[in-house]
Amino acid sequence: MKYDYLILGAGPAGLTIANLIKKNKPQASFIVLEKESVPGGLCRSEDVDGSPLDIGGGHFLDIRRPKVNDFLFGFMPEEEWNIYDRDSRIDMGSYCIGHPFEANIWQMPQDEQVKYLKSIAVAGCNLGTPKPEKFVEWITWKLGEKIAEDYMLPYNGKMFGGELDKLGTYWLEKLPDVSFDETLLSCLNRKPYGKQPGHARFYYPKKYGYGELWLRMGAALGENLRCNCAVTALNVAEKTVAVSDGSKYSADTIITTVPWKSFDTIEGCDESIISLISGLMHTGTEIRYIPENLDTQAHWVYIPDENISYHRILVRHNFCEGSRGYWLETNLNRVSTAENRKESVAFPNEFTYPLNTIDKPDRMSKLLPYMRDHGVIGLGRWGEHEHYNSDRTVERAMELFEEL
Hints:
Blueprint: E1 2-8, H1 12-24, E2 30-33, E3 45-48, E4 51-54, E5 61-62, H2 66-73, E6 81-85, E7 88-91, E8 96-98, H3 110-121, H4 124-127, H5 135-143, H6 145-159, H7 180-189, E9 201-205, H8 211-219, E10 225-226, E11 231-235, E12 240-243, E13 248-256, E14 265-267, H9 271-278, E15 282-290, E16 300-302, E17 312-314, E18 326-331, E19 346-354, H10 360-373, E20 376-378, H11 380-383, H12 390-403
Parallel strand pairs: 1-2, 1-13, 2-10, 7-16, 11-14, 13-20
Antiparallel strand pairs: 3-4, 5-9, 6-9, 7-8, 11-12, 12-13, 15-18, 15-19, 16-17, 17-18
Helix pairs in contact: 1-12, 3-7, 5-6
């Protein structure tokens, strides 16, 4: 079976590029292969306890990319979405504060505020000391020792499975500068200063889970989408893939949005390329539903306490109309602890977060051009091995279509 384009994976990246091809290149032949029974990837939703639950974690549509949103509203009109002002919090045990941490120290008891202010005042970025190259040292340099020890290091250690020593710092530039002046002003005036975090305002469907959007995008593809079709092997030289039912597909261009390490075999390329792929790292998560409502207005809550296995709570009843309960997000390596053994609905995800290891930029700078030269293009969170949110993934797919 030969096509102009072969698209691997029907998550946001694959669905976007496929729909753009279908609409704008009607003469092109293409097929999308998806291993699950429905499209959506990590953004899929399931009906749990009478309401949708997003089985890949917390996914929301940021309002900051209007071109992306206009494209997506072509499948699910804007009037089917609610807009929320983000309410995310950090549970510090005896009290909660808003996120981001450094902008909301003013919500703490005064004696705690003083401790954090003193720590920020002597943070390396505020004293002008050289920027460290290791993740743990960089976090302390950027945010101060107390924020690092009380929040950033334990939280990231839980989220990324204790791999902090392997992480680089190149991806952390998006963190805002922690200005002592702005932090002090926020404490004096009792309001946050500085940049708003991502998803400061976001869309979420009124009647559905986030997965509904991607179901509609899949339906728009008709026979060009084949589900229950897991790709097992990639031959780069032949530009072919084999799937779980034994069939084989080939194309002039293969666009892969699935994890490079999810192929059972990759053939027809230099052995050095296989070595690059084998060194890519990722983490998985478990999403577990809890039916009780929480006494909070927050949409989600970060949990840095290392004695609690999960690192984030998504409060479903505060953003999904007519629902109840919440779900826990836990690194797969931490799900065996006591509080996660209770009887409840859970969804494991082997591939959730690509890890930004120290050597990843070098690996991807060699892997992606090599594959592209051979007609295989990596796209999206897994094809590019970048921690993109869904809106950024859609944007990357739109950019790739313009190139093609």
